[in-house]
Structures are given as C-alpha cells and as structure tokens.
Write a structure and sequence with these properties.
heterodimer, A: 118 residues, mainly beta, 7-stranded mixed sheet, B: 117 residues, 6-stranded mixed sheet, 4-stranded antiparallel sheet, 12 strands
C-alpha cells in the first residue's frame, strides 16, 4: 500500500450506532489530520495530531472521538451521530511543519469515507 | 483572521484551451504557503501545486501554473491545454499558523471546472 488509505470508503449508520473510521499513511509523516467535507461547504479541519499528540481540536462535538496510536494510524470513533454529520471525512498526513516542514505544509489526502447517518 | 476566497462556484472551458481559476487570500503572516488541490468525483484530494510566500518565481508543474500576485493577495491557478480529465472540483488552500504555533491548511469553497469536448 502506498500513500494514505482510508477504510471504509462508504458507511451508513443509524444515530444510535457506534462505528470507527480508519486512516493509515505509508509516507513516513508525523502529522495527521481529520477533515469534514459537507455538501457546498469548504473543508473543515477537525483534528490535528503531531507525533501522536492531539494539537488541534477545532471545536468538534464530543460525539467524534479521535485516536492516534502511532504516527501511521489515525482513527475517528463515531457515536450518537446526527443526520447533519453526513459528509465526506478526509484524512491527510504531512511532515510536521514545526519539525522542519516550514510553510510548505503539503498534505497528502486519503480517498475519504462517505458517511451517511440515518 | 486568515481566509481563502474562491469567487467562481463553477467554470466551463473548451478542451485544449487554457482556464484560470481565481483565489484570493487574507493573512497577517509573513511566511505562508499557498496550495491548489484537485478533487475528482471519487473524492480524493490531489495536490497540484505549491507557492511559498517568499518565492519570487511563479510555481509551475506541467500544465499547471500559479499566478502569484503578492501585493494583491491572489494566487490564481492556470491550467493550460485543458483535458476532459481535468473536470473536477479545485480547491485553493493556505497554510496558517494555529494557536498552538503549528501550521494547518485552510481551504476555499472550491470551483467546479467542467471541460467540454
């Protein structure tokens, strides 16, 4: 596998379900990101992890719970979601700009998980 | 506050012609980066081109070039010799410094480009 992979690619869940999204990067990066892309809205940054530590939580509701067990893996645990949470969830990775990446914070994205909450 | 603006929700271009996608930004940072990404209907975000705020030359990558006008705070993407496969959403993004001192990307609302045969 190369680049950034995400599973599942599609997910349909009820509001009472608990599910997890998985992201894996094979690029040797040390920063990982979760974004939410809703219809007709710009990408919204949700969480940032640098060296496995969460460095940003962009006012995301607690029904979204990220987990980063190591620099290569990132999870997004979902529980008690609402229909308005239906969106494309994108994972990305980069070399942490604070560790020499500079302003070129080029991020490599996975294919996304399209989530539908019924 | 940092902000990215893409004023063209949709654009049409004839195959083999050039097209310019507009992007303006607002930041108080002196050091920043500007990016363009392409998102086909499959959903994946594909990095196209990068321009650093201190780069004096406009960035070019194959058929993509970035028309960087720092004083006007614009970073327009030019696609030359459009191909049918260029039909996609295009996002302009800027690296910004978060409260933690670390950088992250902020994205514009995107432009949907349709290339017509």
């Amino acid at each position: 596998e190369t680049g950034v992979t995400q599973t599942p690619r599609h997910l349909v869940m009820g509001m009472t379900n608990k599910k997890s999204l998985k992201c894996e990067q094979h690029l040797g990066h040390n920063a990982m990101y979760w974004y939410k892309q809703s219809a007709k809205k710009p990408l919204e940054l949700m969480f940032v992890y640098n060296f496995k530590e969460q460095t940003e939580n962009n006012s995301v509701p607690s029904r979204f719970s990220p987990e980063c067990p190591n620099s290569s893996h990132l999870f997004l645990h979902l529980h008690t979601l609402q229909p308005e949470d239906s969106a494309l969830y994108l994972c990305a990775s980069s070399q942490d700009p604070a560790s020499g990446g500079g302003a070129n914070n080029e991020q490599f994205f996975g294919p996304g998980t399209r989530l539908t909450v019924l | 506050a940092q902000k990215i603006t893409q004023t063209q929700p949709g654009m049409f271009v004839q195959e083999k012609e050039a097209v310019t996608l507009d992007c303006t930004y607002d930041t108080s940072d002196q050091s920043y980066g500007l990016f363009w990404y392409k998102q086909p209907s499959s959903g994946e975000m594909i990095f196209l081109i990068y321009q650093g705020s201190y780069d004096e030359q406009n960035a070019t990558e194959g058929r993509y070039s970035l028309n960087f006008q720092k004083a006007r705070k614009s970073a327009n993407l030019v696609i030359s010799a459009s191909q049918l496969g260029d039909s996609a959403m295009y996002f302009c993004a800027m690296s910004l410094v978060m409260d933690t001192g670390r950088r992250a990307l902020t994205f514009g609302s995107g432009t949907r480009l349709q290339v017509q045969p």
